[in-house]
Amino acid sequence: MASEAENLDAEAEAADQWQLVNTPLGEPWSGRTRYAAAMFFFKRGEMNAETLEVYRICARLDAENPLSIILDRGVGNKLAAVCRGVQVP
Question: Over 60: is that where the pLDDT of 13 sits?
Answer without folding.
Answer: yes
